[in-house]
Amino acid sequence: MTASMPPVRFADAGEAADVAAFLARLIHYDKAAAVRLQAGGGALAVFGRPASFEVLAVRTARLAEFAGERAVEVDVTVSAGELLESVDEGAATAVVPSAVTGPPWAGVLPPKGGWERVPGLPSPAGVLRSVRAAVAEFRARVEELEPAKRTRGELDRIGTEVWSRPVGDTELPVRAAHAARVLGFLRDEPGAGAGELSLWAAGAWLRLRTPYGAVVVRASGPGGGLGVMPRG
Q1: Using only C-alpha atoms, what is the Rg of the chain?
Q2: Given 22, 97, 135, 155, which residue has the most CB atoms within 10 angstroms?
């Protein structure tokens, strides 16, 4: 535990399970994944960067409040695997592991305020169609290549072209929506309303917000594809 820090107490077992599921998905793509934790004001934010997706993913959780206990305040980068091992879903707690040397992205997080809603985002079904179409196109174009031409450079070129395309009438790259889907933030649920997805901007940042988490990208940053075969 970091410097005698008290355990994180989630509001309920469901909040703990949601954080654990998010950590497990990050580790699926990168067993050495790190996450930055920020806690305060009764909430915990877990920031991660799923390998190859070139986005930041954010999962928040409500924390419990106990009379007489000092509020947990956290701002530290830790191993996602160690944090996952410490989550006790039954007790709705987690132990904050020792800090690790954070990757470069952990030092450049999106702003906490100044977000304004951006129009032009399709319905959840429309966003999912964009993701499925991009996955299908990427796989088809890779399969059309002769084996000798399936080089890393060629895969990256195709990936950049496909995954940097915008979603609807926005600047959000489809790779961000794809990342939201594989992380469990964007789900194939019948009857989901358009209001459950929203797009927000703050300076150079874009945030795709869903009921299950958010994916954040730099709107004016360098474009880039996933560079890998899409999964899941």
Answers
A1: 19
A2: 22
Return the structure tokens found at 180: 């939201």
Backbone torsions φ then ψ of 107, nearest 5 degrees: -95, 0
- Coil vs helix vs strand at 107: helix
DSSP string, 74-102: EEEEEEHHHHHHH-BTTTTEEPPPPP---
* C-alpha–C-alpha distance, residues 124 and 168, integer Å: 11
Interval 77-92: pLDDT, tens: 999 999 999 999 999 9
CB 226 within 8 A of CB 53: yes
**Beta-carbon contacts of residue 24 (< 8 Å; ≥ 6 apart):** 84
With beta carbons less than 8 A apart as the criterion, state whether 18 and 49 touch. no
Record the pTM.
0.85
In the chain, the amino acid numbered 106 is: A
Nearest C-alpha neighbor of 31 from the set 86, 89, 84: 84
